[in-house]
């Protein structure tokens, strides 16, 4: 049975250069924080801001608009998601 370090080594070999840099950054953040890094909104916002797949709202953006619920048959998607993750 492979150890955690063996599994990690095999995954690292499959990373692109950009992914490897990101992982190194996460490790450096974790070590700098001592017992464990605390993710704050600001840290998450900074990490996601550099990715093209995300559009990060500005820090002074207003609240989200209110949404109206619609009635439909079946189990609500939120309940399905929670059940799936358990």
| Average predicted local confidence, pLDDT | 79
User: How much helix, percentage-wise, in residues?
Assistant: 40-55%
Overall shape: extended
Multimeric status of the protein: single chain
Determine the structural class based on helices, strands and strand pairing.
mainly alpha
Proportion of strand residues: under 5%
Q: Care to describe what's here?
A:
The mean pLDDT is 79. This protein has a domain of 44 residues. It starts with a helix and ends with a helix. Helices cover 51% and strands 0% of the residues. The protein contains four helices and no strands. The chain is mainly α and 86 residues long.
Give a summary of the structure in a few sentences:
With 86 residues, the protein is mainly alpha-helical.
List the helices and strands and how they pair.
Elements: H1 4-13, H2 17-32, H3 41-49, H4 77-85
Key words describing this protein structure:
mainly alpha, 51% helix, 86 residues
